[in-house]
Each structure stands twice: as C-alpha cells, then as structure tokens.
Amino acid sequence: MTTSQWGSIYKDLGIKPIINATGSVTALGGSIVADEVRAAMEMSNDVYVPMSELEQKAGGEIARILDVPAAYITSGAGSALTLAAAAFMAGSDDDKIQQLPNTDGMPNKILIQKRQRYWYDRCMEFSGGQLVEVGNEDGTSADQLIKAINEDTACVHFPVYEQKEIDDNILSLEEVIEITHSKNKFVSVDAAGQIYPLENFGKYVKMGADFQCIAAKYMGAPHSTGLALGTEEIIDAISRHSFIGYESRRIRGIGRPHKIDRQEIIGVVVAVKRWLSMNHEERLSKAETQTNTIFNKIKNIDGLQVKIINNIIGHQPFGLSFDIDESKFGINNESFVELLKNNEPSIWTRVPDGEKSIVIHVFGMNSKEAEIVGDSISKILKDIK
Questions:
Q1: Residue-wise pLDDT tens digits, 361-371
Q2: Which has the closest alpha carbon to 127: 187, 82, 72?
Q3: pLDDT single digits (tens) 44-89
Q4: Rounded distance between C-alpha atoms, residue 370 and residue 126, angstroms
C-alpha cells in the first residue's frame, strides 16, 4: 500500500487515520485480521448454513483442539462474560432465561475479591447479576470467602493476569476453585488475554474453573469475536441464552444483541488453528525488533527515562515505557501523549489507568510504523527544547 492509499477508506469519511501505539484496545478497533482468517471469512461469505449447527460444530472443533469439555464462539470476551453470568443465574431453565435481567428467585450475587476489581467486571452485571466484593483493600482470606458464599451466590469471578506479579494478599485461583466448589457454586475466570504460552490457552478450565473467556481478537480474528470455554453444562446454558437460542429456539433471552455472523465464526476457528500452529518464536522476535527500533531511537535523549517491557506472556509481548522530565521539557507525560496525537501522522498511546509512565505497545504496528514512532518522539522532544 502506498503512502497516499494509507487509510484512504477512512479519509473518505473525513476521519484521520492513526498509528496505533497503544495496543489491542477496543477504542482503536482492537485487531488486524490475519490473512488466513480473512481468506476463510471470504470463502464463507457467499454460503448460508444453519447458525445453530455452525455454532455447535465450530465450538466442538475448538474444544477438541484445546482439549476442554466445551466451547462457544461469542461476540467478544465481554459478551462471553455476560452470557456466562446469565448461565450461572438462570441455567438452562427457559422460563428463567426469559425472566432475565429480572433475577427474582435466582442466585444473582457474583463474588469478586476486592483487590481484583477491574474495568471489565461490569460485564458480569449486564444480565442482571450484582457484583459483591469479598475482603478489602488489604486482601481476602479463605474464611471471608467461605462466609460470603451462600444461597444467593451465582458464582465467584476471578480475573487472571499471568504477566503480572502474584498478589500474595488475595486467594489464588486454586484456592477459589476449592472453596467455591466445596459450596457447590460455579467459578468464572476472565482470561481474555491469556493466549501465550500455549499451555495457558484453556488452562483455567482444565484447572477446574467452570468457565473462562478469551478475546479472539488477540489471535488475528475479528475484533468483535471471543470464546467461552467451560463445562458442558455451562456452555450448553450459554448457547440457550445466546442469540441462537433467541432465534432458533424462539426463547426471548438476553443474548439477542450478542449476535455474531457466520463469517466471524469461521474466522475464529481458523484463527485458533493458526495460533496453535504458528511460529511464536518468530512472532516474539518481530515484536522485540519493533520495540528495539523505537527504544534505540529515544534511549539516549537527555531527560527521557526509557525501559523495555520484557514480557512475552499473554497477548501483547514487549513494548516500552518512558517518562519525560518535566523540568527539562516543560511538559508532563499526559501532555506529551496529546502532542503525539496531534503529530503528523497521528500516533496514539497513553498513560494506562493506575500507571504513571507512557506505555507503547507494538501489537498494532508494522516495522515502518515503529520507525515513525521512534523518529516522531525524538523530533517532538527536540523541537520542544
């Protein structure tokens, strides 16, 4: 693609295309569809099939590949969370499915450790559930979780970030599974980005969780796709709550807006197969090279503290963080983020919630764009001086 063609489809709408230095985020479109996935989606475009059968067979194939009991393709990991919460509360009872989001007479409390609260736990409430914190900012004990689980509990929810340091102040997933199952309740795991190392892909269901979600966008599938993995009981219930249940079974559940098309379902199947067979050493090497390209262009700038993120776990390997010395440049990190956005070309990055440094991820960049990002940071800071 030539420079004049870059982003032309968006320019025609009056939208300025950007270089994505933020990573795989919903606000910027999430992902780039892999060539193999795009080709498979194109092949599926001109042919119709019964969607209920497609979901069943596609889920079955993914479950077989990942060696988990069952799988279902959803319209993103957030959709999988919402449908799973519905399944934990109403199960496969058609009357209860149609009653949601009214949860009268159902267990509707979704327990989560206080220190594990996060931006996307809200998805667990969209089908009518209520998040209930266990413990406090200092942590959660086994006794606190045991006492918190009662007849109103639908499940205990646990977000996983393998790439972060272990929090010794909270209960581990193993402890949560043991305690929760001893009370005959379900365990839900948000593992949206836990797709590498490959043994982490489906790991939490194999550990004993009843459900886990994965964001398929991280594997080269469309942004609006995800996976629900779990027990046969929970995945069957999810299918009944889904748009398939609404249309094929004529049951008016909450899942009708969670529609996914046949092309996307095929795309997810191909993306999973591609991910499990691709050369990940090559993938990681590319990300490291892109990271070093930016790092080497800015590492010696006086007044800039730059660190490489030496992470290969999960969906966004490597990248870097940096801090601007406000006393030297007269601007802080947040102001510099805005300068990058107003650059030509526009470069989007951010200071993530809860952090102080500017963080750059190379997930959405090609080699040329990594060069541009490094050169742009250097030029803007030089011009400021």
A1: 999 898 799 99
A2: 82
A3: 999 999 999 999 999 999 999 999 999 999 999 999 999 999 999 9
A4: 39
Which is it for the CA torsion 366, 370, 372, 376, positive or negative? positive
Task: Please tell me the pTM assigned to this model.
Answer: 0.95
Query: For residue 250, what are the contacts with CB-CB under 8 A and spacing of at least 6?
Result: none
Cis peptide before 159 (omega within 30 of 0): no
Please list, in sequence order, all residues whose beta carbon lies within 8 angstroms of the beta carbon of residue 149, skipping any fewer than 6 positions away: 111, 156, 179, 180, 183, 185
Residue 211 dihedral angles phi and psi, to the nearest 5°: -160, 145
Q: Is residue 303 part of a domain?
A: yes
What phi, psi does 246 have (nearest 5°)?
A: -65, -45
Taking the CB of residue 327, how many other CB atoms lie within 10 A of it? 7
Residues 220 and 101 in one domain: yes
Q: If you ran DSSP here, which 8-state letter would residue 350 be given?
A: B
**Do 220 and 363 belong to one domain?**
no
| Amino acid, res. 368 | K
* Pair 109, 171 in one domain: yes
What one-letter code names the amino acid at 287?
A
What is the identity of the amino acid at 153?
Answer: T
Signed CA dihedral, 281, 286, 287, 288: sign only:
positive
Q: How many domains does the chain have?
A: 2
Q: Which helix (DSSP H) or strand (DSSP E) does residue 60 occupy?
A: helix 51-66
| Confidence band for 20, pLDDT divided at 50, 70 and 90 | very high
Q: Output phi, psi for 192, to 5 deg.
A: -50, -40
Q: Sign of the CA dihedral 285, 286, 292, 293? A: positive
Instruction: Domain of residue 287: give its range.
Output: 8-30+279-384
356 and 238 share a domain?
no
Nearest Cα to Cα of residue 167 among 210, 202, 134, 137: 137
Q: Is 1 within the bounds of a domain?
A: no
